[in-house]
């Protein structure tokens, strides 16, 4: 285990954490994260799924007026679900910030501009949905323009979750931080698109269940709004949508698992995922019975379907956290060790003599600053004599004793010379002054 951590540290950025206590017990923050995320993602799913179905129905409504009415009725739910999604998104965002500060902010920084663009994108999408909703009758004679407004909102709604998912995915893999060169690079990590497709299927499945209930409410005057489409037909379509999306999720599930790096796949994750899949099977059976059974019995098992699917969603959300915990555990241990070492050095520095005496010591030891940089950035992999993770310092001196610029260039952007040594990470974050004192110190070693 210690050798694995040493190797991980040699190829992975290991920042110092902020040594502040959590405001609540960790287990309680985890529960808040999972529960609040489920509440948030439910309305995100309904917002996205409702927008997609509205766009489909309105396009179909160009030839069949009944579908235009269906689109209008579904569109009424989008802005409400959108507002709830935004409000309920605050709690999981704060929870993940507190629990995974280093990882969440590192991923955000690496995707930079695209992460910041979420704010104007959300604003634009919300304004478009309001325009689409309240200009419905005014743009009756310009259906093409009206559909285009919603189409643009849907494209934005499809893109925003992709940004979130890419960032949340990137925070799980600190070993990739040194190679990611922005959003597109992070988007190409193998697990992103399978997870995204799984999310889209979930949006359609949940929206299908919601609309099955929404149109079937006793106080909803279905017959006064629809003349040529029956309630049974609508509910059958929504059940079929949910069932089809759920079946496709079963196909995507193994793909999501095999594209996840093995470091987070342990038995606790497998058990949770299998339990979630098992809970979904009876729900799918009851939906199938409703679709193929008597029209008057289509809603007979709806309560059971909701219960089983809710359990599935809860288990799958828990599985997401289990994987995150498994995957980050080794790196969190390294971060804790580095933070502890930093706090120890910090305490020792505060206990040093007065500034006048410290200045005298610095004059007596001209390479003290370079040694400090070395201890912080290099000592975990290099020692004076003999191999640690990388070659000894004396070997560096023998190669670069007359080539200070070459040593600086190698440290900033190293290559890979030997198969029996791991790839050394670069240190572009070091300032020119730090690099100068570091290389001066290295070349002073005898």
Q: How many strand units?
A: 0
Percent of sequence in beta strands: under 5%
Weakly predicted, low-confidence segments: 1-10, 357-364
Count of separate DSSP helical elements: 19
Rg measurement, Å: 28 Å
Q: How would you state the average pLDDT, rounded? A: 87
Order of helices and strands: HHHHHHHHHHHHHHHHHHH
Report the structural category. Answer: mainly alpha
Task: Give the fraction of residues assigned to helices.
Answer: over 70%
Straight-line N-to-C gap: 33 Å
The main sheet comes to: none
Can you tell me the overall shape? elongated
Layout: helices, strands, pairs:
Elements: H1 2-11, H2 26-60, H3 65-87, H4 90-99, H5 101-111, H6 113-116, H7 118-134, H8 143-170, H9 183-187, H10 192-216, H11 222-225, H12 231-259, H13 267-292, H14 302-350, H15 355-364, H16 368-377, H17 393-400, H18 404-412, H19 432-444
Describe the protein.
By secondary structure, the protein is an all-alpha fold. Helices cover 73% and strands 0% of the residues. It contains 19 helices and no strands. The protein has helices at residues 2-11, 26-60, 65-87, 90-99, 101-111, 113-116, 118-134, 143-170, 183-187, 192-216, 222-225, 231-259, 267-292, 302-350, 355-364, 368-377, 393-400, 404-412, 432-444. α3 (65-87) packs antiparallel against α7 (118-134) and α10 runs antiparallel to α12. The longest helix has 49 residues, at 302-350. The radius of gyration is 28 Å and the shape is elongated.
Task: Give a quick set of tags describing it.
446 residues, 73% helix, mainly alpha, elongated
């Amino acid at each position: 285990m210690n050798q694995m951590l040493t190797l991980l540290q040699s190829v992975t950025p290991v920042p110092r954490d902020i040594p502040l206590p959590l405001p609540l017990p960790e287990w309680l923050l985890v529960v808040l994260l999972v529960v609040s995320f489920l509440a948030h993602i439910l309305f995100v799913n309904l917002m996205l799924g409702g927008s997609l179905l509205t766009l489909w129905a309105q396009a179909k409504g160009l030839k069949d007026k009944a579908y235009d009415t269906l689109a209008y009725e579904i569109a009424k739910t989008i802005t409400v679900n959108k507002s709830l999604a935004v409000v309920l998104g605050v709690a999981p965002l704060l929870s993940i910030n507190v629990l995974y500060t280093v990882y969440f902010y590192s991923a955000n920084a690496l995707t930079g501009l695209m992460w910041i663009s979420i704010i104007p994108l959300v604003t634009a999408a919300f304004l478009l949905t309001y325009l689409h909703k309240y200009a419905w009758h005014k743009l009756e004679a310009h259906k093409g323009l009206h559909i285009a407004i919603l189409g643009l909102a849907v494209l934005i709604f499809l893109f925003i979750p992709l940004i979130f998912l890419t960032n949340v995915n990137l925070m799980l893999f600190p070993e990739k931080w040194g190679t990611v060169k922005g959003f597109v690079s992070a988007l190409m990590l193998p697990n992103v698109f399978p997870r995204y497709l799984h999310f889209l299927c979930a949006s359609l499945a949940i929206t299908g269940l919601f609309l099955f209930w929404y149109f079937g409410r006793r106080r909803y005057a279905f017959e006064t709004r629809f003349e040529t489409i029956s309630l049974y037909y609508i509910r059958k379509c929504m059940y079929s949508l949910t069932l089809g999306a759920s079946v496709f999720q079963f196909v995507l599930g193994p793909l999501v698992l095999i594209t996840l790096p093995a470091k987070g796949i342990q038995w606790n994750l497998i058990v949770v995922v299998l339990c979630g899949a098992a809970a979904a099977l009876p729900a799918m059976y009851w939906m199938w019975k409703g679709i193929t059974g008597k029209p008057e019995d289509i809603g007979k098992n709806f309560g059971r379907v909701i219960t089983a699917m809710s359990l599935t969603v809860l288990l799958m959300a828990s599985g997401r956290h289990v994987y995150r915990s498994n995957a980050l555990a080794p790196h969190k241990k390294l971060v804790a060790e580095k933070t502890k070492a930093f706090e120890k050095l910090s305490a020792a520095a505060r206990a040093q003599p007065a500034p006048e005496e410290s200045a005298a010591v610095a004059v007596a030891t001209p390479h003290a600053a370079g040694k400090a940089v070395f201890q912080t950035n290099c000592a975990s992999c290099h020692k004076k004599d003999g191999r640690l993770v990388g070659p000894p310092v004396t070997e560096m001196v023998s190669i670069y004793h007359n080539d200070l610029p070459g040593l600086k260039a190698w440290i900033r952007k190293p290559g890979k010379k030997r198969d029996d040594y791991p790839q050394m990470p670069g240190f572009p974050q070091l300032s020119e002054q730090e690099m100068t004192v570091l290389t001066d110190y290295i070349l002073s070693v005898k």
